[in-house]
Design goal:
mainly alpha
């Protein structure tokens, strides 16, 4: 029973002996199966298949190899060299771009820090000015209260003296004086007030102040053109890989 082709062993590149008949040299080429065979394969696996001597078909393969060499040296390698050079420039541009972006971001951050420090200094200066003004009003109010206290005590002493040894005229004048006070209680001043409520969620405001950041997706190749690069597989058969431009 014949072995299915998918299960048949594969010849390693450079192997000169048959996989099915050990020790037999591979001197022939089966045109139907497109693989190298030995003389014993004629009566077994490749029975009745058209077979040619290996020395007869190699001259047919040489032009393809020469064409591959010529095409690769003149076209593919030159093109790949250009892509490598372009990639070097792309690396430099990539580094330069993000260095400039980082510098702009740091400059904007420093600017915001300076403006925030300036705003803080202005607010602190306002607080200090209000504190000084309030202090002056409070001290003035205290002085007025102390003066009123002193005057009230003097008036009280005068009332006591009038009751103890004053004449009728003095008592009358004292009575009129207490019911028509010359001095009045100082009015409590209206002080300046201030308040500060910290922003518990400043992230959105900071993002707006910092500026707009726009990024595009990574890992997606921008195809300038599709190019075919011909290579040889391990079996010596030419294969083609489609590669897109960087």
């Amino acid at each position: 029973m014949a072995t299915p082709k998918s299960q048949m062993p594969l010849r390693i590149k450079g192997q000169t002996t048959c996989l099915h008949h050990k020790g037999r040299q591979l001197e022939f080429y089966c045109e139907k199966c497109q693989e190298l065979v030995c003389s014993k394969c004629f009566s077994s696996i490749h029975k009745a298949h058209p077979v040619s001597e290996l020395s007869e078909i190699t001259p047919q393969k040489e032009p393809d190899i020469k064409n591959f060499i010529d095409r690769t040296e003149k076209n593919d390698l030159v093109q790949i060299g250009k892509y490598i050079t372009a990639t070097d420039n792309l690396l430099k541009d990539n580094t330069s771009t993000f260095q400039k972006l980082s510098q702009k971001l740091k400059m904007q951050t420093d600017k915001l820090k300076q403006e925030l420090d300036m705003l803080t200094a202005q607010t602190l200066s306002l607080y200090h000015k209000m504190e000084e003004d309030n202090t002056k009003l409070i001290k003035k109010y205290k002085q007025d209260l102390e003066m009123y206290e002193k005057q009230l005590k003097q008036q009280l002493q005068a009332c006591k003296a009038a009751l103890q040894r004053g004449s009728h005229l003095q008592i009358y004048d004292t009575f009129c004086e207490i019911h028509s006070p010359i001095y009045s209680l100082p009015v409590k001043p209206v002080l300046g007030t201030a308040n500060f409520t910290p922003n518990e969620s400043p992230q959105d405001s900071l993002k707006k102040a910092l500026g707009k950041v726009i990024t595009s997706g990574q890992g997606q190749a921008l195809t300038d053109q599709d190019r075919s690069v011909s290579t040889s597989d391990d079996m010596g058969q030419p294969s083609t890989q489609q590669r897109s431009g960087a």
